[in-house]
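Page 37, continued from 36.
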């Protein structure tokens, strides 16, 4: 399956510019894992980009990041490098299919299995969330792919979002998932 957009000549080309208002941030969460959050996040980012919106997709699954894997890209840098202080947040942005300035979208990749991201302090997550809100000034739309469940750092990150979408399937313990989803909504608001 490919998430690549149509060829760049078929798409509008935008110049990156700073907005007065930050982009709306949509977080994608779930009670249970493996239900399609990352798939939905990539699909949303791709759809917003195709609609001509400058879009940033953030891998907010701090423990088990895999947006890069699902996109089939190998980013040179990621959020773990940002947390380590090696690069600034906006320097960790990786363009996909030309990036947001050329009709594709941008990605802030995470790092799977990185203890550095899985064990962030509440202050570090708060700084990351504040950085995302500032970076949103350069975009029309930000999609935040969350980790599963209602773990504290997941909730802290979710609070940076204007909207939290819940993925629920009928395949796995849907009743329990629905309850957890309700908790996620409540805790993130
Ligand atoms: N709408 C869909 N149709 C078919 N397959 C899907 C769909 N959404 C997700 N999948 C497949 O289901 C699997 C899990 O999807 P995904 O990684 O997006 O879930 P996730 O909720 O992000 O998982 P995790 O909680 O581990 O982050 C993947 O193999 C993905 O390709
Ligand atoms: Mg995922």
């Amino acid at each position: 399956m490919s998430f690549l957009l149509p060829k760049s000549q078929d798409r509008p080309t935008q110049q990156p510019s700073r907005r007065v208002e930050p982009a709306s941030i949509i977080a994608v969460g779930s009670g249970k894992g493996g239900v399609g959050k990352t798939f939905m996040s990539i699909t949303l980012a791709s759809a917003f980009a195709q609609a001509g919106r400058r879009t940033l997709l953030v891998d907010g699954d701090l423990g088990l990041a895999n947006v890069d894997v699902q996109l089939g890209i190998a980013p040179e840098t990621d959020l773990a490098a940002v947390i380590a202080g090696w690069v600034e947040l906006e320097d960790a942005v990786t363009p996909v299919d030309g990036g947001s300035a050329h009709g594709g979208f941008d990605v802030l990749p995470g790092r799977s299995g990185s203890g550095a991201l899985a064990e962030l302090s509440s202050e570090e997550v708060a700084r990351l969330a504040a950085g995302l809100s500032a970076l949103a000034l350069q975009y029309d739309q930000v999609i935040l792919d969350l980790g599963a469940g209602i773990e504290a750092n997941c909730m802290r990150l979710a609070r940076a979002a204007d909207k939290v979408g819940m993925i629920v399937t009928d395949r796995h313990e849907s009743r329990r998932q629905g309850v957890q989803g309700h908790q996620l909504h409540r805790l993130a608001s």
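The chain has one domain: 19-188. Flag for discussion at group meeting. The pocket of adenosine-5'-triphosphate (ligand 1) is lined by residues 30, 33-39, 61, 64, 148 (CB under 6 Å).
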